[in-house]
Fold:
Amino acid sequence: MAPPAQSQRSPSPSQPSGKGEVSDLKSQLRQLAGSRAPGVDDSKRDLFKKVISYMTVGIDVSSVFGEMVMCSATSDIVLKKMCYLYVGNYAKVNPDLALLTINFLQRDCKDEDPMIRGLALRSLCSLRVANLVEYLVGPLGSSLKDSNSYVRMVAVIGVLKLYHISAATCIDADFPAMLKHLLLNDPDTQVIANCLATLQEIWTLEASISEEASREREALISKPIIYYFLNRMKEFSEWAQSLVLELVAKYVPSDSNEIFDIMNLLEDRLQHANGAVVLATIKLFLQLTLSMTDVHQQVYERIKAPLLTLVSSGSPEQSFAVLSHLHLLVMRAPILFSSDYKHFYCQYNEPFYVKKLKLEMLTAVANESNTYEIVTELCEYAANVDIPMARESIRAVGKIALQQYDVNAIVDRLLQFLEMEKDYVTAETLVLVKDLLRKYPQWSQDCIAVVGNISSNNVQEPKAKAALIWMLGEYSQDMHDAPYILESLIENWEDEHSSEVRLHLLTAVMKCFFKRPPETQKALGDALAAGLADFHQDVHDRALLYYRLLQYNVTVAERVVNPPKQAVSVFADTQSSEIKDRIFDEFNSLSVVYQKPSYMFTDKEHRGPFEFSDELGNLSIGVDAADTVVPAQQVDANDKDLLLSTSEKEDGRALSSNGTAYSAPLYDAPASVPASQIQSDLVNLTSGLPGHMPAASLAIDDLLGLGLSVTAAPAPAPSPPSLSLNPKAVLDPGTFQQKWRQLPISLTQEFSVSPQGIAALISPQALLRHMQGDSVHCIASGGQSPNFKFFFFAQKAEESSNFLVECIINTSTAKAHVKIKADDQSMSQTFSTLFQSALSKFGVQ
Amino acid sequence: MLQCIFLLSDSGEVMLEKQLTGHRVDRSICAWYWDHAISQGDQLQPVIASPTHYLFQIVREGITFLACSQVEMPPLMGIEFLCRVADVLADYLGGLNEDQIKDNFVIVYELLDEMIDNGFPLTTEPNILREMIAAPNIVSKMLSVVTGNSSNVNETLPAATALCVPWRTSDPKYANNEVYVDLVEEMDAIINRDGTLVKCEIYGEVQVNSHLSGLPDLTLSFANPSILDDVRFHPCVRYRPWESHQILSFVPPDGQFRLMSYRVKKLKSIPLYLKPQLTSDAGTCRLSLLVGMRNDPGKTIDSIDVQFQLPPCISNADLSSNCGTVNILSNKTCSWIIGRIPKDKAPSLSGTLVLESGLQRLHVFPTFQLRFRIMGIALSGLQIDKLDLKNLPHRPYKGFRALTRAGHYEVRA
Structure:
């Protein structure tokens, strides 16, 4: 008579067993089915355990389904549980047999023990067999009104399960309304939390087809409901708290007093033992204060300590998730963390992915006051046993050097690395010295002296070798034996496997030739010959180009190959600020861990519950919502704030610089350059070069993205090339979606819509018909007053070059916020003008 | 939300599978995960994107807890939940290992059933779970033999869910009322080769073991709460008294729990020093280590040991010490177990390392990790002032202990 837990060890489930044993089980079960003998429950229990253990290791025991059901008539709750587990697992593949179980499950749903009622209901809902839903409605309905909260809790989740099996049945039975009633009236907080989770999911999925559902979904984030949750916050379980905090983060308080009230109420959540609650609270605080620069900064100060404690308290896995979030915040506002740099020091036995995050944070927070200590610390890592770590730390030192103005000490350190005589250290350092010289040419003397001593034989990694060769070419006049080193490298042309190195070798020997012709002539000849015979297309082409250039005119060749260079002021960032903002909007989600916004790694169908399901572009709602909801506050933003997202900051600057109300550019140009100059630069670039300056190509992309404010353009724009659109353009939604994801935003604008237009915009359809008249077609639209959202596309008349537009119209502010993407970037400005004029005519005639 | 939870053994075998939603997750994901885990080695991240699912994984005692999701969700929710599952299972089964789980898989299923439904975590509070599902301990085994009642499921549902103190068992009764408060601290420090302290921080926990009848109300105060840098509380702690007077006021859960965790930073004194010396010349390197007391904490320091990784360029090592034992493992990890510092001599380790041929001098240096334990003192200096108990029929027994051990305590060479 032992409980199952420690009964005589059944044969280890890991031993695979054949069909024989299953049929053996079957006959044994059959014998027991009708028996009422005392002790029969124990034998049943052993058999059930065997069946379940087979199931667990993956042996198919569905053939005993009938017998299991027959044996299920018992009062023993453990037996019942095992039976439920079994049935839940196999019902889906045996829908006919599942019918057998309905009877006993329904009976159990009326048992006097609430635990059995709950368990039976849970199993009943977990069968997930579509043709059995009719049997679900009755028990669910009565269980929702059960006197025991455990049963109600199970029933609420049961409704969600039912919805996923058959949405129509669930809606027809009016379950959402019952849940809403429970949500607002149930005494048990776990029931309420389950109601919330269920309703969110159901209404989000329903919102696309039913107006009522989307209204209900909106109502969840209305003031009374939010306050109802906030007031009961402490009664919720920790998991339910995270759920509620997520919901509150979507609520937009009406004024700053309300924001402070909410934050005061929730401040103690920052000290909760559960990391999920703490992070959800932090997210809420950050979202609430996004438009209040000073407070936002205070929030950073406030959340610093809890985050740092979370990092040091939990398991390594928890630490990592928290560190990813900390990383995001540090990258956003490094200055605020600059005094906490010691927290980012790496411990020896931390996993590499943690160290890497910490190194990036150390790099970001380095400033005048702490650089010395940080670099000293990084140098410790460079000498460490851990080679990948040593490499990363050297890169970090280099990055710090590139972002600082006072680099004396760092250059010395880097040069010391070169003297360590470890090949990987030398390799990494060479690459860095090259970048450093591009930014600070004034250091060339010191660096060259050390680099000159490195034997090229000790450098094997292609990147490092390329860097060394670049320096040899660039500074050949200062390095005494540069031509001879190059010559020996060219002799070994055949052994050089990396095409990158060979390309650099060609360029370097050219540069060297211009400076020291007599010594290099032979090497140049050899290099060109070897290059022309090279099997790699790029190398061959470059050699041919150089050859022809030299043949044509040596001075011209020099102007092309070795023009006077300007020091690089800023190296392009790998992630655009737009993407960083978007990740920030998705704080406390997987996006932060992957360092990618969710649209880059999740399929649409699996997106979180609060996504607009009618939306095509998959672009973050957070940004749009913030833009449309708080335009007034954005104006307050000024240049000094470092916390606001870049786009908002630029908005502020543009407003103050040209004093007009309409402008929404997004550019990443150095702040010191006057805006008008950039704009005229842009004009040159767009009309002339399509962008062919290797180092600055990224910057140019962003420059192209600079929106010239049409209504108030100060720069003399060249007369735009005329553009006619194809009135019968077609584009299927799939292609649109794909293009929308691929193309960069070429223009972001905001303009006002005439009052007549707003008046005419009672429904989205009115605007669609109007725009069609101007050959701009709509592919999707949606939204509720005051925010309407449209996706348009248009095609050029002659060729199949597409323009894609996302347009959000806020009827209360009479503003249209437009994002344009185009196959042909140079035409997007023209198209924008056309689009705007079409929009402005809406409702006028 | 989570769609499925798998428990894998240390050989990658699926021990248990719990589907949580209608979207069945195929077992093949485990095979994918296992291959991935092997290829990544110790670089495996806790959150992984597989071709079909996002995986959360934690490893406890060789057992991998793997959860799958296809939707965006707070990552900490997944990880934190798995950690709780591991804690609860270890608590129920008296430790985690493959046999325990295989023997008790029915209980594991039962537990998971109550802890999460349809992917939403419900309750992870051990006290509530204990009331729903009895643990398979000796007592219940005996009881079931005697009474003939063999169910491990309690007859009644926990009343606690309806109370406003969900963490507490409804009405426990003890003959001996007792409560123990432990301060457990871990010291993290980085010390440079010249002995300068780069960073020194303490992470501490106040652990309470409470066996009190009824609904007691406890107040714990510290003599010097101002040294605490940041604190986190068990849900039972009331926030206001802490806010105004730095007093911990709470109704405790029954049994062992973590009342509070805290951090104290910028500490100046460390209990032990380690002086490494490495001099290399002509292909060999002399290594000598000295360990001694830096600041006497006033209590014995025991379980001292030193671990370090020899650089890969060392082909041979010959090390000996004047006390304790020295072991060099095949992966070039060296451990020197000292125990206590003897009264008459300072522990030292010395020896020669032979470098690989062709190398003259050593360029990479090991980091030494020191471990120790000090009973009877909290090195942060935190002191418990008093513990008051209200709502108790009898005078309970109160016990206090403190313990400090080394966390990441490392010395660079």
Remarks:
- Chain A touches chain B through 117 residues (CB under 8 Å).
- The beta strands of chain A are 747-752, 777-784, 787-795, 802-810, 815-822.
- The CA atoms of residues 576 and 702 of chain A lie 9 Å apart.
